[in-house]
UniProtKB/TrEMBL annotation:
Transmembrane helix found in the keyword field: no
Polar residues: bias regions: 33-42
Keywords for the protein's UniProt record, in alphabetical order: 2Fe-2S, Disulfide bond, Iron, Iron-sulfur, Metal-binding
Record function comment: Iron-sulfur subunit of the cytochrome bc1 complex, an essential component of the respiratory electron transport chain required for ATP synthesis. The bc1 complex catalyzes the oxidation of menaquinol and the reduction of cytochrome c in the respiratory chain. The bc1 complex operates through a Q-cycle mechanism that couples electron transfer to generation of the proton gradient that drives ATP synthesis.
Extent of the signal sequence: none
Region (Disordered): 28-54
Originating species: Streptomyces spinosisporus
Listed name of the protein: Cytochrome bc1 complex Rieske iron-sulfur subunit
Annotated ranges, domain Rieske: 44-136
Cofactor: [2Fe-2S] cluster
């Protein structure tokens, strides 16, 4: 009995030390964020990396965010609000993010305008990729 308790305590202590090391790494890399622990808890997960097609993307209407994967393993996110008159973009196809209202198209790689009348690129959004999870930053 006493031996089991001791072992469990040692395991818990080791786990806590590992977590502490992980947390300090995140803190060092991202000292601009005010509450990085929110994302670490998984509360803001948008999608799994496997949900985003390579060379394409996926629109999250509720969050008004488009997540793209221009190259394998490279993820980007942009506002889903068209810079022309504010419609929500509706499709990602053939390398562009498309607005249904007046036909504007934006490149999946950087959100820049591929076809007007939109005057400006889609605004870039911050995301964090942790393992196979994509989170809003
Ligand atoms: S609102 Fe998107 S093209 Fe006009």
């Amino acid at each position: 009995m006493t031996h089991r308790s001791t072992r469990r305590t040692v395991l818990l202590a080791t786990g806590a030390a590992t977590l502490a090391i992980g947390c300090s790494k995140y803190g060092d890399e991202d000292d601009s964020g005010s509450s990085p622990s929110v994302n670490a808890s998984g509360g803001q997960e948008l999608a799994k990396t496997s949900d985003i097609p390579v060379g394409g993307g996926r629109i999250f209407k509720d969050e008004k965010v488009v997540v793209t994967q221009p190259e394998k393993g490279e993820f980007k996110a942009f506002s889903a609000v068209c810079t022309h008159q504010g419609c929500t973009v509706s499709a990602v196809a053939d390398g562009t993010i498309n607005c249904p209202c007046h036909g504007s198209r934006f490149k999946v790689a950087d959100g820049s305008v591929a076809k007007g009348p939109a005057p400006k690129p889609l605004a870039e959004q911050q995301i964090k990729v942790e393992g196979n999870s994509i989170n809003l930053a």
